[in-house]
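re: that chain from earlier
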Amino acid sequence: MAQQPEQPPVPEEVLPAEALPPDEDWPPANPAPAAVEPPTDEAQGPSPARWLWQGKIGPAFWTVGALLSVVLNIVLIVALLLVARELFALKALVRNQVLGGLAENFRKMDQAVIRTEVVVNDIIPVNFELPVQFDLPVETTTTVRLSADTFIQGARVDLRTGGLIIQDAPADIILPAGTELPIHLSIVVPVDTIVPVDTRIPISLKVPVAIPLSETELHEPFVGLQQVVEPYLNLLDQTPNSWEEALCGDQGQGLLCFLAPWLSGGR
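^ sequence. v structure.
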């Protein structure tokens, strides 16, 4: 009989069941239960408490600080986006109502005029000497009485006594004292005297008053206040008035132009 060559050994892990040697003790009558090891921390994954606190203060502090920083950054970004949507509305409010209102009112105050009526009720004492110099013409008819006997030479007389009648005869006569003579005066009397004046004059009147503030000392402060506000107005006038103008430019094109409608809130 010819001798057959030996077969190479088959690895144990891939041997078929028929090739296994018979074992009288297999399968065991009462197999002992296999010991089950508890799962380790690596198998279960880190628990929340283990993730925050690892028994050291330093890592726990940096972990909590990082969480708070992320939350705060998210809140700030959301707040910044909300404020950005109202940025140009706030600019218009500051430009037109705050700074613009201040500049306009300062200008009106400088151009204002104070108009009122001052009521004066008082008694004015008057005490002075008034010099008087003038010519007084006198034209009048009056009767004078002689204070002494008056001799008149060459008078023309009419005499009727008894049966004697003399008419228009020249004569020298004497008029006794007390004789009343009608005369006509036509003279100019020069007056040169000083009249003392001492009296009290009550007055009651309304005096209209108009005071332009631009002609008073308030003009300079009002102009100075306008000059303080004007640079900020000019600065705001040089900035864009909307997100479309800021992001898209004058040509209506830009890399961030697509954000303009959202930032404008549909306005």
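Residues 10-20, 41-46 have pLDDT under 50 and may be disordered.
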